[in-house]
Amino acid sequence: MHTISTVLRGNARQGQYPLVTHWSHPGGDSFVEKILVESEDISAQRIDIDGIASAVCRFYGAHDEELRGRSHRSSRLRAKAAGIALETEGCTLTELAEVTGRDITTLSCAVRKLHARAGKDSGLADEYRMIKGNLREPARS
Q1: What is the pLDDT of residues 114-135, one digit of tens each?
Q2: Is 110 exposed, middle or buried (0-12, 13-18, 19+ CB in 10 A)?
Q3: Which of 72, 85, 126, 141 has the fewest C-beta atoms lying within 10 Å of its C-beta?
Q4: Is residue 139 in a domain?
Q5: Are residues 15 and 31 in the same domain?
């Protein structure tokens, strides 16, 4: 009997990721189907860049327009949004750059500085975790 982990480990060594259809599980086919349906539901719940921007603004009591501002506060908001975007599947700094009107390099530099400060400041690291915990999925139509 093959398990998911042994099949994936074997294929990872070979650099291949085929569709796994040839293994069985003690829970039977219904178990496998249930897991596949749940994984599709999870992947459908993606956070988009607007959701990240809104979560950061909500946390700090800022308006969304502040992300495009030129103040020090705006810069800190963008840095936090950029850091979260980098850690969120499907989000990129390119998207955030479009939303904020800033260059990708500027956002990347801000993230490096933020991570350096978060390593020394536990309060900042806690804020970062709380914002990430409050992310909402985009509205579905």
Answers
A1: 888 888 888 888 888 899 888 8
A2: buried
A3: 141
A4: no
A5: yes
